[in-house]
Amino acid sequence: MQRGSDVFLDVDAGGNGEGRAIVVPQDGKTVQLSLVNASIEAAAQAVLADTLGLSFVIHNAVQGRVTLQTTGPVPTSALLDLFEASLEANGAQLRKENNIIRIVPGTSGNKTFRVVGAGGGNGSNIVVAPLRFVSASEMVKLLDPLSEQGLKIVTEPRRNLLLLSGSSSLVESALDALNLFDVDVLKGKSVALVQLRSADPEAIISDLTRIFSAEEGGMLDGVVEFIPNPRLGSVLVISSRSAYIDKAQRWIRDLDRAAAGASAYMSTYQLQNRSASEVAPILNELLKGSSSGDMAGVDGGGGSASEGLRVAADDSRNALIVMGTSSDHEQVARVSGLLCMADWVHAS
User: Fold this and answer.
1) What does 191-260 look like in DSSP terms, one character per residue?
2) What percent of the chain has pLDDT over 90?
């Protein structure tokens, strides 16, 4: 939680109405603005002359005061646009002639930013809110209820800024909303990328969703998120509670092993001490017969082969070609090792 000062539109502490115009450089590329009830002349001096190094002239007919504040650092390159927005609210505009900026009456017609002055009179009260994690266009949608109540909002998509104006209560509510939504949603979250060996990422996520929906009475909705990545054959797990990352990884590996046992695939096993043409018929007879009985006495491992197991001999390479499930391949490895009295070589 980050608490602010609860002050969004500063007033002069002495109450003399003189205001202040401060532009504080941050890192050479950004600045903090604090133009509070400043005269246009003082604001122009701070922004145009002191910060941007520009010469300026103000027409005698241009009058008004500016309140232009930022809630965080803004790009120095945005200063001219922001200052022009505050001038628009005072019925003035910028014109560049040679190397001199002239501030003259009138508006360019390109701005739609209209602000509410203090007490409903002349002048501009603008809060500039730079956004870090959410786009300005999306934030405007979230602030739509406040817009209907009179909050004025203009977006600067290129710099991801919001310009806010309205009553102090509306601006305060808007800034509260910014503090709530403009956050790094991944900060503090735990992430794991789990590689799959056999299971389909889409299918395994369907199972995971059902499993975790049953956890804690269905209260984990949104706490754990699963994202499939078919191209990498993996599942991305994101959770705001690190304990569920470990639990999710265990479930994924269990489901992946179960999928491996149910899916048939082909592999080649090269033999070293006996011919494949001799071993293949023996394996077919022994392992196919084990589908209805226990093989513990033969291979020392227990379990049974599936009905789809196929073992063929490749005489040219003296290798066994095996089609079967993961458990079938384990059976073949154990039994062929006993028959050949030596380790076989897993070729592919």
Assistant:
1) EEEEE-SSS-HHHHHHHHHHHHHSGGGGTTBTTEEEEEETTTTEEEEEESSHHHHHHHHHHHHHHHHHHH
2) 1
